[in-house]
Amino acid sequence: MAPNPSSAHERAREILRECPEWYHSIELAPGVVTPGRAPLAEWQRKFEALRLPDLHGKSVLDIGAYDGFFSFECEKRGASRVVALDHYVWYTDMSAYMIEWRDSQRTGAPMPPPHASRHWLPDLTPGKRPFDEARSILNSKVECAVDDFMSMDLAALGKFDVVLFLGMLYHMEEPLRAMRRLVSVVAPGGLAVLETEAMEIPGAPDAAYCEFFPDAELNNDASNWWSPNAKAIEGLGYAAGFKRVDLLSGPPLLPPLRELRSRVRRISYRYRAVAHAYA
Ligand SMILES: C[S@@+](CC[C@H](N)C(=O)[O-])C[C@H]1O[C@@H](n2cnc3c(N)ncnc32)[C@H](O)[C@@H]1O
Description:
Layout: H1 5-18, E1 27-29, E2 32-33, H2 40-49, E3 59-63, H3 69-76, E4 81-86, H4 94-107, H5 129-137, E5 143-146, H6 154-157, E6 160-166, H7 175-184, E7 186-200, E8 210-212, E9 226-228, H8 230-240, E10 244-249, H9 257-262, E11 269-278
S-adenosylmethionine binds next to β4.
């Protein structure tokens, strides 16, 4: 039986009341969109910027799926199987954590990363609720895997035609090991799509660099560790065993405007890079 549109609306509004904190903007019912960290149009623009191949009949793994925007979008675009993998924010009561995080932004009080905070509740997976609610109301068949990509058994996870590694690389304590694990879950001839924080040092010798953030220097988030330059993104891919790495969005010719002021203090500028890596 087709879902009753008015009850879908009601359910969507109820979900928004019960789950106030969203990372992704997801249209749960016509006109009812979750209040993500950017408008829905911005997430859709990010999706298009990934320049994914035709997904019909393809299997997709979304590593670090969070609320699932990219997983649901791949399913909508015809992927035959989508697996959403995450553990870190799913283990955290993100609603409560973000209230404290926003306070810390205002007051400058130190804020521990989620796993060192009182909101880390792995047995309850409170942060997975938005994903689960969205999956349910969208009647989605996206599968989910609750695990740490860096320590889980990847052989049991299997191999996928398209693997999304979006907003992940800079969170990895060991980026090269992460890239080696990434190539191992891409089917032969398949594609890994990386989207990452990146940096460039204008005028520096042509070499691979990563900026390291020992504390919470990047976005007041202590779970951010590394920002590679374009050469380092390519180098990490080849060193990990990918056959070809294409940077789709490399460094802009000029630093982003918001970066100009901070460049007075910093020699590098930041941007977001997208790359395709072929196994
Ligand atoms: C910045 S968010 C990116 C979310 C989404 N991929 C996107 O681009 O919008 C990073 C995500 O990676 C997840 N994550 C971080 N380390 C992880 C790990 N070792 N295994 C699985 N997920 C991880 C976090 O829980 C979070 O959902």
